[in-house]
Amino acid sequence: MTTAAATPQNYSSLQKSLHWIIAALVLFQLFVHTGMEQAWIARMGGVAEGINPLPHILAGIAILILATWRLFIRLRRGAPPHPPRQSKALTLMATAIHFIFYALLFILPLTGLLGWFGHVEAAALAHVYIQLAFLPLIGLHVAGALAQHFYFRTNVLRRMTVSR
């Protein structure tokens, strides 16, 4: 892990790329997951229907791999510090949201894989209900980034979008 002296002031190009690729895959998942319930019913009942679960499964596996890579880089390289004059409450909220994001980026693919390939119904149900947390979390994340940019006038949004 990095020390205070080695704390980066910006995200690396790789960290930014992984962030946006994972974000795109998560959004993709939110749109293609609707057929998975029918695919699950067909799989468990042995009745083949015209629903292809493969895009959802492959995107989930990609998210798991990329999130693992991203977490490894974050642990090795670190992340930029929070804005210096940011309140403790906002810092705590931002930290909690990032922690929950990372947790969901691991838990959702793992419960999906366990449900689909392991035929574990409890994991499949957990997958369905846990994914409901993603939309409000995305909303909070985007709102926080926009508030940092437009209201607090910090560089938080720019350091994840602009290459230096």
From TrEMBL:
Main localization, broad class: membrane
Entry similarity comment: Belongs to the cytochrome b561 family.
Membrane topology: Multi-pass membrane protein
Cofactor annotation: heme b
UniProt keyword annotation of Translocase present: no
Boundaries of every Cytochrome b561 bacterial/Ni-hydrogenase domain copy: 11-161
GO MF assignments: electron transfer activity; heme binding; metal ion binding
Keywords, comma-separated and alphabetical: Cell membrane, Electron transport, Heme, Iron, Membrane, Metal-binding, Transmembrane, Transmembrane helix, Transport
SUPFAM superfamilies the UniProt entry points to: Transmembrane di-heme cytochromes
InterPro entries documented for this protein: Cyt_b561_bac/Ni-Hgenase, Cytochrome_b561_oxidase, Di-haem_cyt_TM
Protein location: Cell membrane
PANTHER family referenced in this protein's UniProt entry, alphabetically: BLL0291 PROTEIN (PTHR30529:SF6), CYTOCHROME B561 (PTHR30529)
Gene Ontology CC: plasma membrane
Protein name listed in UniProt: Cytochrome b561
Membrane-spanning segments: 18-36, 56-73, 94-117, 129-152
UniProt keyword annotation of Electron transport present: yes
GO biological process: respiratory electron transport chain
